[in-house]
Each structure stands twice: as structure tokens, then as C-alpha cells.
Amino acid sequence: MSKDIWKPHVVVAAIVEQDGKFLLVEEETDSGILFNQPAGHLEEGESLLDAVRRGVFEETAHHFEPEALLGVYRWRHPNKRQRTYLRFAFTGRITGFDPTATLDDGILRALWMSAEEIQALQHRHRSPLILDCIRDYQAGRRFPLDLLTDYPDAP
Questions:
Q1: Within a 10 A sphere around the Cβ of 88, how many other Cβ atoms?
Q2: 117-139 pLDDT per residue, tens
Q3: What is the reported pLDDT for 137?
Q4: CATH 3.90.79.10 describes domain 9-95+103-143
């Protein structure tokens, strides 16, 4: 008897604060124009750290260097019950910006917002993970990156 194997959608996200403001993206989604932290799906053969570097750049044109794991979050989308996300959230710093880079399809803009401004736009968040991650960040939650072990693909 064969059953379909359930697989969560593995995503990475960056929680970046600079001068009291957090980096967000405004994006087109199936539910309208919403806000999210810079994020992306883990691609085959990619480490989590490389995925978050790539995701931040593709969505914001900022170069991001992860410094700590903020947490791992499991969330089931309420309107898409078959879709569960496993989010690896990282903190770190911006190391550069490429004004000539083209943002990913669906990304309208990258912007910096205070925690209060983000809270006020809660009704336009892509998921509850946005505020949860900011609260965890503000509470000082950090785990060392060596918590993650990445085995290279076999040749």
C-alpha cells in the first residue's frame, strides 16, 4: 500500500534590525499585497545559511550575513490546511546593497519599519510568524550557528 509522503515547506527568513528599524518586504500574494520578512524556500543542495543569504538578496538587493539562529517555527496555513511551513529564522547584519539588482517576481519593495509600525500593519502580515520573530528577537533569543550541521552532497 502506497501513501503520499507529507513534506513541510522548508523556508528561511531574516530578521534584520538596523537603527531601530526592521527590514521587510511588501509582496503580491494569493491573499493580496502583504508584508513579510525577507524569506525564501530552501532549494535542493543548498545549505540553510546559503538559502537565507540568497533569499534576502533576491527579495531586497541587500547582502545579508547570518550571525545567529533565532528559532525554528512550524506553522500550518489556516486557509491551506495541507500546507505546513517549517521556518528557520536567522538574525544577522547587512553587508552591502546592490542598487542595480532586480527583485524577485511579486516583490514590490523592500522597506525598513519600526516594531510599532509593523505591529500597526498586523492585518497585512503574510503570517503570524512576523511578529513572533520580532518579539523573540527583541527578547534577545539567539542560538549559535554551529547548532546547524550541513553535510555536503555526495559527488
A1: 21
A2: 999 999 999 999 999 999 999 99
A3: 98
A4: yes
DSSP classification of residue 107: E
Are 60 and 53 a contacting pair, CB within 8 Å? no
Predicted confidence (pLDDT) per residue in 59-83, tens digit = 999 999 999 999 999 998 777 667 8
CB contact at 8 A, 15 and 90: yes
CA quadruple 97, 101, 106, 108: dihedral, nearest 10: 60
Q: For the beta carbon of residue 98, count every other beta carbon within 10 angstroms.
A: 11
Phi then psi dihedrals of residue 141, to 5 deg: -70, 125
Nearest-angstrom CA–CA distance, 95 and 39: 17
Of residues 108, 129, 97, the one with CA closest to residue 15: 129
Grid cell locating 26? 511588501
Cell of 3: 501513501
For the chain, which residues make up each domain, given as ranges? 9-95+103-143
Q: Are 90 and 72 in contact (CB under 8 A)?
A: no
